[in-house]
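Minimal example, chain plus 3-hydroxy-3-methylglutaryl-coenzyme A.
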Amino acid sequence: MSDQAASSEVKPPHDENGGYMQAAPSPRRWPANVGVKEVGPRDGLQNEAVFIPTADKIEWINQLSETGLSYIEITSFVKPKWIPALADAFEVVNGIRRVPGVTYAALVPNRKGLERALEAEIDETAVFMSASETHNRQNINKTISDTFPVLREVVEESLAAGKSVRGYVSTVFGCPYEGPVHVEGVLRVAESLFEMGIHELSLGDTIGVANPKQVQDVLGVLLKRFPADRLAMHFHDTRGTAMANVLASLEMGITSFDGSLGGLGGCPYAPGASGNLATDDLLYMLDGMGIQSGIDRDKLLTAVRYIQSKIGRTLPSHNLQAAGPV
Ligand code: HMG
Ligand code: MG
């Protein structure tokens, strides 16, 4: 190599002993801690054609309870005819071993669902609706306007019974029936749900169409109205953009993320909606970035292998495939 060529090489800086020095740290853009909410037993299993026996669901949730997760959405008190995979909601809630410090939540669509959830003594209820009219109608058989009073009743009665309420807004980044969704529609639903009394709103990319720029654009609008610690992100990985969308959200100050172990999941009323962001993939990235979640990845791996064996097909999680067979 000529002297001229050598002198044009970019060399890392050396310390006085000739060793390479660490590159200067980049500006801090990420939070030190995040909360991860596991929705696999609900969002993951609701879409499965095979009915997972109640005892297996209970065993899986018990394993999840030992991983350090502080929040697990364990089932759904929707109409069993619509979601037969979770028809055993009451038995599941009553069969699990509750670990102190873990919040066990369930999806509730209306008063009838709330009655069932309260009878089962769930810790927290989660209400849900869509930002787009057609998905809302397909999913819960009502217009957006007609959904508000139904959910208001659920939120108020849930709070009166001492149960906190989380909210979901679906189709934030796109609707399977209508295509693009205007952020005004998301704001309208968000305003109403917060006004009813939910403590956190999870923004759902129901069909996995979002990209990082869109995520930051939408969050840019919502964060002018709501603090970052009241918003959570719920990504589906249908087109492989979920992890990039997490990073984009972290950069906007979001510290609450939903995941589904193994990448299980989807919405039966959103054609083409494949699995959620895999909780175990999310944890791999967060751990590597030094972002604390309090979750033990080895225990998570045991739990994801367990549910994969019960589902009977290879789950989409990259982490699981990289870990190989036991
Ligand atoms: P409907 O048929 O319009 O209900 O369903 P209705 O009020 O007209 O009642 C009809 C019958 O259903 C009555 O019985 C009710 O008692 C019964 P009948 O008098 O005829 O014998 N019923 C119920 N039974 C048990 N539990 C209940 C219940 N409610 C009514 N809760 C309803 C309306 C909302 C209930 C129905 O459309 C439904 O259950 N939809 C759920 C759909 C669903 O679970 N979708 C997936 C979850 S959302 C999602 O995945 C997105 C998310 O992950 C975020 C994201 O990714 O974006 C959250
Ligand atoms: Mg979902």
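The chain is about 40% helix and 15% strand. Strands lie at 35-38, 71-76, 103-107, 124-130, 164-170, 200-205, 231-235, 256-259.
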